[in-house]
Amino acid sequence: QYQLPAVYGDVLKLPFRENTFDLVFSQAVLEHVRDPFQAVEEMRRVAKPGGSVWAGMAFLQPVHAVPMHYFNATVWGIEELFRNLHIVKTAWFGELSFTVDWLFKTAGVAERADRAEYADLMQRIKSLDRLVSYEDLKGVASGVSVEALKSAET
User: Fold this and answer.
1) CB-side exposure of 42: number of CA atoms within 13 Å?
2) What are phi and psi of 23, to 5 degrees?
3) DSSP string across 5-74
4) Would you call 134 helix, strand, or coil by DSSP?
5) What is the Cα–Cα distance from 25 to 35, expressed in whole angstroms?
6) SS3 151
7) pTM: predicted TM-score of the whole model, two decimal places
């Protein structure tokens, strides 16, 4: 019964009053809006004072959901988007092999390569993930996320 949204709206003008939610959650949305700064401002607006806002978005992901893919962000980019909130934590995710595989698939390499050869290549690349620390992944991650708080005074 909860498979479909109960409310449809535009993230650039959310259909909710100010200070409504304890938590605003956005997964894989911000790269698909024309003005991610306005979208974050709307998330801030509808969060209650002291409320949490969590968002994840693409960093080194290839273009997807064409033609509605506008912006990817580094950790520093997502911090800039959320500069009007108190940032509690930033993170990054997606093993290097995951990103490489997605890039190859998007470029058509996976479908044109010999299936066994491609599987062997990806297995070899995946075996190298153990050499990439979490801190090293910061510059080559598939995506980034931020956890932030709305000021209790607003």
Assistant:
1) 17
2) -140, 130
3) -S---BTTB-SS-TT-EEEEEEES-GGGSS-HHHHHHHHHHHEEEEEEEEEEEESSPPP-STTS------
4) helix
5) 17
6) coil
7) 0.91
Residue 104: how many CB atoms within 10 A of its CB?
19
Residue located via tokens 């700064």 = 37
Residue by residue, pLDDT tens for the chain (154 residues) are: 667 888 889 999 999 999 999 999 999 999 999 999 999 999 999 999 999 999 999 999 999 999 999 999 999 999 999 999 999 999 999 999 999 999 999 999 999 999 999 999 999 999 999 999 999 999 999 999 999 999 997 6
Give the residue carrying structure tokens 């698939």. 105
Length of the chain: 154
Q: Judging by beta carbons within 10 Å of its beta carbon (0-12, 13-18, 19+), is residue 100 exposed, middle or buried? A: buried
Residues in contact with 66: Cβ distance below 8 Å, sequence separation at least 6, in sequence order: none
